[in-house]
Amino acid sequence: MARVVVVGAGLGGLAAAARLAAGGHRVSVLEQAAEVGGKLGWVSRDGHGFDTGPSLVTLPQVFGDLFAATGDPLDDVLDLVRLDPAVAYRFADGTDLDVPGTLDGVRATLGPEWSAFLDRAAEIWRVTEQPFLRSPLQGARTLARLARSVADVRTVAPWSSLRGLGVQYLTDPHLRMLLDRYATYSGSDPRLAPAALATVPWVEQALGSWYVRGGLRRLPLAVADRAVERGAEVRTSTPVTRVLVEGGRAAGVELADGGRLPADVVVCNADAAALYRDLLPAVAPVRRARASLARATPSSAGFVLLLALRGRTAGLAHHTVLFPEDYDAEFDDLFRSPRPLRDPTVYVSAPDDPATRPDDDSESWFVLVNAPRHGPVDWDSPGLADAHADHVLAVLARRGLDVRDRLRWREVRTPVDLERATGSVGGSIYGTSSNGARAAFLRPANASPLPGLFLVGGSSHPGGGLPLVTLSAEVVAGLVGPAR
């Protein structure tokens, strides 16, 4: 039995804790915030409730595997509802496109071009799922293993961007824009992100988009409960200031109150950049990992409005995406000349769930636009957050969703708010972006260069998003192994 300390009670850390505790280890989870969940937060006020992070679940089998491996099955714990339509898209030229929640419906609605693209995406998924997403990352050697099969390399097309792959299959500008959006799932630029990200729409459309009744915040709460059931200890309001290194390996953690907690294994669910920059001593043997992170492009961040509204919006889908006229200008503002977006894509999540509203004549909207991270843009600049919030509401109004006269109240959350709440450097949602042909293969590995230290969560392999974060926990549990 190993003594394991998990730093951070985001979904990845909690999933790792549940698996390791079920494997017989003595596990302590330390979370700086007052509640578990990390980026899967929840805000409640005047009867309005908001998920403040991810708003849908994909790859539900990943969560089914987690719960089956640690106790009662998923269906006994959470109520997952398949969304149909999955997303309602609105384009600047007035075109509306509701994407069904089933693969057959998607193929029928989006047509033969999109169907041909999905067939290619399915092949990329077949090639990459087990050797990449479900296995430990070994840097360029992972890519080298893939290169042993010429056919597989041709399928994945590591030399091609997501935008480039779309051009091969799609002539409809609406479908091309729809595909570009999937790069933002990893905080990336579709002109630079690898074609392998085609697996994201495949997973979402073939296996479904799902909502957790009562709010997605129920997911980390359920995983925390499972970890505790298996014997783990979860301590909130317990910041970690340092990973201890003794004898050339991780030996525990130092707490903000000066206390120390020894451990045989440390699993870090903090942002990888924060770990290597702030939590490890300068003498730790992680120079190459630090240098690799310094060279990587950070992912984009997000600017969020929580809107408590009077009345109901007729025909509003669970998820609505309102595109700008010039999508490339958005990515230029994010990565090339960072600034608050002038004409952003606006994402609205408005679950039809009684748990999110005080009565049936109310709505609670989570509104998100992409944003450059804090640093290149000073989100602490006086008046900037409110001015940008007003701008986003005006953009919504121009695109047919004017709710300004229905507002009970609004809450604004900027990238610097995310940085302070979760430790994500600059508010980058996914750590490093996938910009560049090899970027996805060069993310921080789950096994750090320091023996006994492992990384879990969206800033490490295999990437951001609820299923990948949960898979990172599966990989880490496999690396640590069961108690002996």
UniProtKB/TrEMBL annotation:
SUPFAM superfamilies: FAD/NAD(P)-binding domain. It comes from the Bacteria. Its EC number is 1.-.-.-. It is an enzyme of class 1 (oxidoreductase). Pathway: Carotenoid biosynthesis. InterPro entries: Amino_oxidase, Carotenoid/retinoid_OxRdtase, FAD/NAD-bd_sf. It holds the Pfam family Amino_oxidase. Transmembrane segments: none annotated. Belongs to the carotenoid/retinoid oxidoreductase family. This is Phytoene desaturase family protein. The gene is crtI.
